[in-house]
Protein backbone atom coordinates (compact mmCIF):
# COMPACT_ATOMS: atom_id res chain seq x y z
CA UNK A 1 0.00 0.00 0.00
CA UNK A 2 1.34 3.38 -0.95
CA UNK A 3 0.86 6.80 0.55
CA UNK A 4 0.92 10.34 -0.72
CA UNK A 5 3.44 12.87 0.50
CA UNK A 6 2.26 16.30 1.53
CA UNK A 7 4.54 19.15 2.58
CA UNK A 8 3.23 22.08 4.61
CA UNK A 9 5.28 25.19 5.35
CA UNK A 10 3.80 25.41 8.83
CA UNK A 11 1.35 23.56 11.08
CA UNK A 12 0.88 23.26 14.83
CA UNK A 13 1.83 19.58 14.84
CA UNK A 14 1.83 17.01 12.06
CA UNK A 15 0.52 14.41 14.52
CA UNK A 16 -2.33 16.70 15.62
CA UNK A 17 -3.23 17.48 12.00
CA UNK A 18 -3.51 13.80 11.01
CA UNK A 19 -5.49 12.99 14.17
CA UNK A 20 -7.90 15.86 13.36
CA UNK A 21 -8.32 14.56 9.81
CA UNK A 22 -8.98 11.05 11.11
CA UNK A 23 -11.66 12.34 13.47
CA UNK A 24 -13.23 14.13 10.49
CA UNK A 25 -13.40 10.81 8.64
CA UNK A 26 -10.31 11.32 6.50
CA UNK A 27 -8.14 8.35 7.30
CA UNK A 28 -5.86 8.67 4.30
CA UNK A 29 -2.51 6.98 3.90
CA UNK A 30 -0.34 10.07 3.91
CA UNK A 31 3.09 11.22 4.94
CA UNK A 32 2.78 14.79 6.16
CA UNK A 33 5.95 16.84 6.43
CA UNK A 34 6.07 20.24 8.11
CA UNK A 35 8.86 22.69 7.49
CA UNK A 36 7.96 24.26 10.81
CA UNK A 37 5.76 23.16 13.73
CA UNK A 38 4.41 25.78 16.09
CA UNK A 39 3.29 23.27 18.72
CA UNK A 40 5.21 20.05 18.17
CA UNK A 41 4.32 17.41 20.73
CA UNK A 42 6.48 14.82 22.46
CA UNK A 43 5.54 11.88 24.59
CA UNK A 44 3.88 12.30 27.97
CA UNK A 45 2.49 15.72 27.16
CA UNK A 46 5.87 17.30 26.55
CA UNK A 47 6.53 19.77 23.77
CA UNK A 48 8.93 18.98 20.99
CA UNK A 49 11.05 21.81 19.63
CA UNK A 50 12.72 21.38 16.30
CA UNK A 51 14.76 24.18 14.81
CA UNK A 52 13.19 25.30 11.53
CA UNK A 53 15.47 24.20 8.70
CA UNK A 54 17.52 22.10 11.09
CA UNK A 55 15.07 19.32 11.92
CA UNK A 56 12.98 16.84 9.95
CA UNK A 57 9.46 16.62 11.33
CA UNK A 58 6.84 14.39 9.77
CA UNK A 59 4.01 12.02 10.52
CA UNK A 60 2.99 8.93 8.59
CA UNK A 61 -0.70 8.11 8.92
CA UNK A 62 -2.16 4.82 7.80
CA UNK A 63 -4.62 2.15 8.84
CA UNK A 64 -2.99 -0.79 10.59
CA UNK A 65 -4.24 -3.94 12.26
CA UNK A 66 -1.29 -5.62 13.93
CA UNK A 67 -1.93 -8.51 16.29
CA UNK A 68 -0.23 -6.60 19.07
CA UNK A 69 0.35 -2.87 19.35
CA UNK A 70 3.09 -3.07 21.92
CA UNK A 71 6.44 -2.75 20.24
CA UNK A 72 5.32 -0.61 17.32
CA UNK A 73 7.29 2.46 18.33
CA UNK A 74 10.34 0.28 19.09
CA UNK A 75 10.06 -1.22 15.61
CA UNK A 76 9.94 2.31 14.18
CA UNK A 77 13.05 3.25 16.16
CA UNK A 78 14.90 0.19 14.88
CA UNK A 79 13.96 1.06 11.32
CA UNK A 80 14.98 4.72 11.54
CA UNK A 81 18.30 3.99 13.21
CA UNK A 82 19.20 1.30 10.66
CA UNK A 83 18.28 3.61 7.79
CA UNK A 84 20.38 6.47 9.20
CA UNK A 85 23.64 5.40 10.82
CA UNK A 86 25.15 2.41 12.56
CA UNK A 87 26.30 4.57 15.46
CA UNK A 88 22.72 5.40 16.47
CA UNK A 89 21.47 3.66 19.59
CA UNK A 90 17.95 3.16 20.92
CA UNK A 91 16.80 4.38 24.31
CA UNK A 92 13.67 2.49 25.34
CA UNK A 93 10.92 2.97 24.43
CA UNK A 94 11.41 5.20 21.43
CA UNK A 95 14.23 7.68 21.42
CA UNK A 96 17.17 7.58 19.06
CA UNK A 97 20.47 8.43 20.68
CA UNK A 98 23.71 9.45 19.09
CA UNK A 99 26.79 9.28 21.32
CA UNK A 100 24.67 9.27 24.48
CA UNK A 101 22.55 12.25 23.50
CA UNK A 102 19.03 12.36 22.10
CA UNK A 103 18.88 12.66 18.32
CA UNK A 104 15.26 11.91 17.52
CA UNK A 105 11.93 11.05 19.08
CA UNK A 106 8.89 9.09 17.99
CA UNK A 107 5.28 9.69 18.96
CA UNK A 108 2.76 7.01 17.94
CA UNK A 109 -0.94 7.79 18.32
CA UNK A 110 -4.01 5.89 17.17
CA UNK A 111 -7.57 6.95 16.41
CA UNK A 112 -10.75 4.91 16.59
CA UNK A 113 -11.01 1.17 16.11
CA UNK A 114 -11.61 0.24 19.72
CA UNK A 115 -9.39 -2.21 21.51
CA UNK A 116 -7.64 -5.47 20.78
CA UNK A 117 -6.56 -6.32 17.27
CA UNK A 118 -9.03 -4.15 15.35
CA UNK A 119 -7.80 -1.89 12.57
CA UNK A 120 -6.92 1.57 13.69
CA UNK A 121 -5.77 4.71 11.98
CA UNK A 122 -2.23 5.01 13.24
CA UNK A 123 -0.09 8.13 13.23
CA UNK A 124 3.66 7.62 13.51
CA UNK A 125 5.26 10.99 14.23
CA UNK A 126 8.99 11.43 13.88
CA UNK A 127 11.21 14.36 14.80
CA UNK A 128 14.91 14.18 13.91
CA UNK A 129 17.39 16.91 14.81
CA UNK A 130 19.68 17.70 11.91
CA UNK A 131 21.64 20.36 13.78
CA UNK A 132 21.85 19.89 17.54
CA UNK A 133 19.33 22.29 19.13
CA UNK A 134 20.15 24.49 22.06
CA UNK A 135 20.00 22.21 25.08
CA UNK A 136 19.18 24.96 27.57
CA UNK A 137 16.60 23.75 30.06
CA UNK A 138 17.03 20.10 29.12
CA UNK A 139 18.67 17.57 31.43
CA UNK A 140 20.95 16.30 28.65
CA UNK A 141 22.14 18.19 25.58
CA UNK A 142 20.58 16.93 22.34
CA UNK A 143 22.49 15.61 19.33
CA UNK A 144 22.16 16.43 15.63
CA UNK A 145 22.45 14.10 12.64
CA UNK A 146 24.98 16.40 10.96
CA UNK A 147 27.52 15.23 13.54
CA UNK A 148 27.76 12.00 11.53
CA UNK A 149 26.20 13.03 8.23
CA UNK A 150 27.52 16.50 7.41
CA UNK A 151 25.16 18.71 5.42
CA UNK A 152 22.21 16.32 5.86
CA UNK A 153 19.08 18.09 4.61
CA UNK A 154 15.45 17.30 5.46
CA UNK A 155 14.64 16.09 1.93
CA UNK A 156 17.47 13.59 1.64
CA UNK A 157 16.92 12.27 5.16
CA UNK A 158 13.23 11.80 4.41
CA UNK A 159 14.03 9.98 1.16
CA UNK A 160 16.16 7.59 3.13
CA UNK A 161 13.80 6.86 6.01
CA UNK A 162 10.31 6.96 4.43
CA UNK A 163 10.55 3.84 2.23
CA UNK A 164 12.17 1.90 5.08
CA UNK A 165 9.39 2.98 7.41
CA UNK A 166 6.61 1.99 5.00
CA UNK A 167 8.13 -1.45 4.57
CA UNK A 168 8.68 -1.89 8.32
CA UNK A 169 5.05 -1.11 9.10
CA UNK A 170 4.00 -3.87 6.70
CA UNK A 171 6.39 -6.30 8.36
CA UNK A 172 5.17 -5.25 11.80
CA UNK A 173 1.56 -5.77 10.76
CA UNK A 174 2.32 -9.27 9.49
CA UNK A 175 4.83 -10.47 12.06
CA UNK A 176 4.66 -8.12 15.04
CA UNK A 177 7.71 -7.13 17.06
CA UNK A 178 9.51 -10.51 16.79
CA UNK A 179 11.68 -9.74 13.73
CA UNK A 180 12.64 -6.36 15.22
CA UNK A 181 13.65 -7.62 18.66
CA UNK A 182 17.21 -8.84 17.90
CA UNK A 183 17.80 -5.67 15.91
CA UNK A 184 16.57 -3.60 18.85
CA UNK A 185 18.83 -5.46 21.29
CA UNK A 186 21.78 -4.78 19.02
CA UNK A 187 21.30 -1.02 19.54
CA UNK A 188 19.93 -1.00 23.10
CA UNK A 189 21.75 1.80 24.95
CA UNK A 190 20.22 0.96 28.36
CA UNK A 191 21.52 -2.60 28.44
CA UNK A 192 23.29 -3.34 31.75
CA UNK A 193 22.91 0.25 32.85
CA UNK A 194 21.47 1.30 36.16
CA UNK A 195 18.05 2.85 35.50
CA UNK A 196 15.50 4.82 37.46
CA UNK A 197 11.82 4.27 36.67
CA UNK A 198 9.30 7.08 36.99
CA UNK A 199 7.46 5.10 39.68
CA UNK A 200 10.57 5.20 41.86
CA UNK A 201 11.88 1.68 41.30
CA UNK A 202 15.49 1.27 40.29
CA UNK A 203 17.44 -1.58 38.78
CA UNK A 204 19.60 -2.76 35.92
CA UNK A 205 18.17 -2.81 32.40
CA UNK A 206 18.29 -6.26 30.80
CA UNK A 207 16.95 -5.86 27.27
CA UNK A 208 13.36 -6.19 26.06
CA UNK A 209 10.92 -9.10 25.91
CA UNK A 210 9.09 -10.45 22.80
CA UNK A 211 6.49 -7.69 23.04
CA UNK A 212 8.94 -4.83 23.50
CA UNK A 213 8.54 -4.46 27.26
CA UNK A 214 11.67 -3.36 29.11
CA UNK A 215 13.21 -5.97 31.39
CA UNK A 216 14.72 -4.63 34.60
CA UNK A 217 16.49 -6.50 37.38
CA UNK A 218 15.21 -4.86 40.57
CA UNK A 219 15.58 -5.67 44.25
CA UNK A 220 12.22 -7.47 43.93
CA UNK A 221 13.38 -9.60 41.00
CA UNK A 222 13.09 -9.33 37.23
CA UNK A 223 10.20 -7.10 36.17
CA UNK A 224 8.77 -6.16 32.78
CA UNK A 225 7.87 -2.54 32.25
CA UNK A 226 5.50 -1.30 29.55
CA UNK A 227 5.85 2.16 28.08
CA UNK A 228 2.29 3.18 28.95
CA UNK A 229 3.12 2.72 32.64
CA UNK A 230 6.47 4.23 33.34
CA UNK A 231 9.32 6.15 31.85
CA UNK A 232 12.93 5.32 32.50
CA UNK A 233 16.20 7.16 32.63
CA UNK A 234 19.74 5.94 32.95
CA UNK A 235 21.42 6.82 36.22
C1 LIG B 1 9.40 12.54 21.96
O1 LIG B 1 10.63 12.69 21.89
O2 LIG B 1 8.81 12.55 23.05
C2 LIG B 1 8.64 12.38 20.68
C3 LIG B 1 8.87 13.54 19.74
C4 LIG B 1 8.06 13.42 18.47
C5 LIG B 1 8.15 14.67 17.62
C6 LIG B 1 7.48 14.51 16.27
S1 LIG B 1 7.79 15.88 15.22
C7 LIG B 1 6.58 15.32 14.08
C8 LIG B 1 5.43 14.79 14.90
N1 LIG B 1 4.50 15.87 15.23
C9 LIG B 1 4.50 16.13 16.54
O3 LIG B 1 3.82 17.02 17.09
N2 LIG B 1 5.32 15.29 17.20
C10 LIG B 1 5.96 14.36 16.28
Automatic annotation (TrEMBL):
UniProtKB keywords: Biotin, Ligase
First-tier enzyme category under EC: ligase
BPL/LPL catalytic domain location: 1-173
Catalytic reaction(s) noted: biotin + L-lysyl-[protein] + ATP = N(6)-biotinyl-L-lysyl-[protein] + AMP + diphosphate + H(+)
Any one annotated GO CC term: cytoplasm
Pfam families per UniProt: BPL_C, BPL_LplA_LipB
Top-rank lineage group of the source organism: Bacteria
GO MF terms held by the record: biotin--[biotin carboxyl-carrier protein] ligase activity
Cross-referenced SUPFAM superfamilies: Class II aaRS and biotin synthetases
EC number: 6.3.4.15
Protein name listed in UniProt: biotin--[biotin carboxyl-carrier protein] ligase
Organism: Ramlibacter aurantiacus
Organism classification: Bacteria, Pseudomonadati, Pseudomonadota, Betaproteobacteria, Burkholderiales
